Amino acid sequence: MKAEPAAQARLLDLQELDTQLERLDHRLRSLTEIAEAAQLKERVDAIDAELITAQTKASDVERHQRKAESDVDQVRSRADRDAKRLESGQITNAKELQNLQSEIESLGRRQAELEEVVLEVMEQAEGLSAEVARLTEEREAAVAKFTEVTARRDTAAAEIQWDRTRVAQDRERVSAEIPADLLALYDKLRAQYDGVAAAPLRYGRCNGCKLALSTVELNEIRATAADQIVRCEDCRRILVRTEESGLTAPVVE
């Protein structure tokens, strides 16, 4: 493959732009705010689950409390009616009076038992209410932190994306100056060799694999026409000859 030396030199500009794009993509993926936002989102979700459980328990206890209070009211009303009947003097039968007094005593014991239940349920309700309040406050703090971190993440990502758009535009302009067949080879090699397809030959060393070329290889490159595409024998990347290549004079074994 052949290409004008100027077009070959543009490969180095293109490689630099592609390297910048890879660095920007890495920066975008590596934003600390991404992981922090994900952790905070998990925390908010976990608090939501705890809050739903606490709210459900509080609702159940509230219903239980209303039922217990209703039972107390019913027993109290029944005891009040019986007490009024007893005090009215309308019942004169001794057996009936004894039964009524026994029922009033029984209702009194039942009322005391139910009132004890109400107190226990009220204590449960207070504890659950405090738990719901605590979780609600904790959720608000977590959501606020998540919102803050997300905003910082989005701002940082937008800045990186702006830089990426600018570099991508430069890449498009530079790639348009490179012959299609050379550009196709470059793109193919980039996919094969960790994103680095072209490297300068500097002082007898390939800057792609960082290995020094042998005397024979340097003499062969020196003898090669300037428009001939040269590849590194070790890493197979495109070698771009520069003023710093060290090819100004023949090398003698």
TrEMBL record:
Q: Which residues form the CT398-like coiled coil hairpin domain?
A: 14-193
Record keyword Transmembrane present: no
Organism encoding this protein: Nocardiopsis metallicus
> What ranges does the record give for the region Disordered, renumbered to this chain?
56-86
**Domain C4-type zinc ribbon, which positions?**
205-239
| Composition bias type Basic and acidic residues, residue spans | 59-86
Superkingdom per UniProt: Bacteria
| A Pfam entry, by short name | Zn_ribbon_9
Spell out the protein name for this chain: C4-type zinc ribbon domain-containing protein
Signal peptide positions are none
Listed InterPro entries: CT398_CC_hairpin (IPR056003), Oxidative_Scav/Glycosyltrans (IPR052376), Zf-RING_7 (IPR003743)
Q: Which UniProt keywords apply?
A: Coiled coil
**Stretches assigned to coiled coil:** 97-145
